[in-house]
Specification:
Blueprint lengths: L7 H5 L19 H4 L17 E3 L2 E3 L5 E5 L6 H14 L3 E3 L17 H14 L3 E4 L6 H7 L2 E4 L7 H8 L5 E4 L6 H13 L5 E5 L15 H10 L4 E3 L1 H5 L5 H10 L4 E5 L17 H18 L1
Parallel strand pairs: 3-4, 3-10, 4-5, 5-6, 6-7, 7-8, 8-9, 9-10
Antiparallel strand pairs: 1-2
Helix pairs in contact: 3-4, 3-11, 6-7, 10-11
Length: 304
């Protein structure tokens, strides 16, 4: 089913909404961390361009700001389908939605599992947007890979080495979120598990780390994004939704992420955030998302 997919640009007929910006060569890195032999495969060598990871026809790392949007959790067929159409109309190039949810409390909504994967795949067929969803455990990798175009390793699983080893053997690209307490070194070494195990299609994602600050859900480490762009050739996304935890902070954090050189954003959008089963308080509604996309387009054009 997925192999039969034509490239998104042919299917979507929506090139006008893409956010294009010039590809900048990163300066050679001479700082001590980059010289560490531990990052054998993730390091950016002098003059090396950012690796372009293709996700069902959508290039990540090619110079465009790739925006992925969708609900925290897939809640119904109608919810994910409606969201897909709304975010696509606003210019998103991929759809997100959780089927297996890593919740802090076992009493909170855990996701709808395979049924949600099926609805995600239907929303992809209806909208033409490739989908990203989280895989929680090694035994679910084959099932999730049957439905998804990009497999998300959630922050809580960044150092789940059994999962990383299993994903290293997958033919699907992987979105590796930074752990809430992971150093940049640990994050890049987690990427090494995927790369050295045979999967070259790795996209990093900064989603905020835990600090002494409690006013925001996490502390979005945008300086870390700029540093990782220097240290590594892998594309880096930013998740301003989990990074801030508050809807009104998502637009400024998104603009800042674009300004520090992120290759894309992954943003939670729900048709009715006040009714969301998870993360409603940090989700934009479709109109807010469309307005943010307009701002990002203007900003990227002004910086070109
Ligand atoms: C999510 O993407 O909904 C999620 C749970 O993210 P994280 O793993 O970054 O907390
Ligand atoms: Mn979420």
């Amino acid at each position: 089913m997925r192999n039969a997919q034509a490239p998104l640009r042919e299917r979507s007929r929506a090139p006008a909404v893409q956010i294009a910006r010039p590809i900048r060569r990163r300066p050679p890195v001479s700082a001590a961390p980059s010289a560490e032999p531990a990052f054998r495969m993730a390091s950016r060598h002098e003059g090396q361009a950012t690796t372009v990871v293709m996700v069902a026809g959508v290039p990540i790392g090619a110079g465009n700001l790739v925006v992925i949007a969708g609900p925290c959790s897939v809640e119904s067929r109608q919810q994910i389908r409606e969201t897909a159409h709304r975010v696509k109309a606003a210019g998103a190039l991929m759809l997100r939605g959780g089927a297996y949810k890593p919740r802090t409390s076992p009493y909170e909504f855990q996701g709808l599992g395979q049924k949600a994967l099926q609805w995600l795949a239907e929303a992809r067929e209806a909208s033409g947007l490739p989908v990203v969803t989280e895989v929680l455990s090694p035994e679910d990798v084959d099932l999730v890979a049957d439905y998804a175009d990009l497999l998300q390793v959630g922050a809580r699983n960044m150092q789940n080495y059994a999962l990383l080893r299993r994903l290293a053997a997958s033919t699907k690209p992987v979105l590796l979120k930074r752990g809430p307490a992971a150093t940049i070194r640990e994050w890049l070494l987690a990427a090494e598990y995927l790369l050295s195990g045979g999967n070259p299609n790795v996209v990093l994602c900064e989603r905020g780390i835990r600090t002494f600050e409690t006013a925001t859900r996490n502390t979005l480490d945008l300086a870390g994004v700029a540093l990782v762009k220097e240290l590594s050739h892998l594309p880096v996304l930013v998740d301003p939704s989990h990074g801030t935890g508050q809807r009104r902070l998502v637009p400024p954090a998104s603009r800042a992420a674009a300004a520090v050189g992120a290759d894309g954003l992954i943003i939670e959008v729900h048709p009715r955030p006040d009714q969301a089963l998870s993360d409603g308080e940090q989700s934009l509604d479709p109109a807010q998302f469309a307005s943010l996309m307009t701002d990002l387009r203007l900003m990227v054009a002004a910086c070109a």
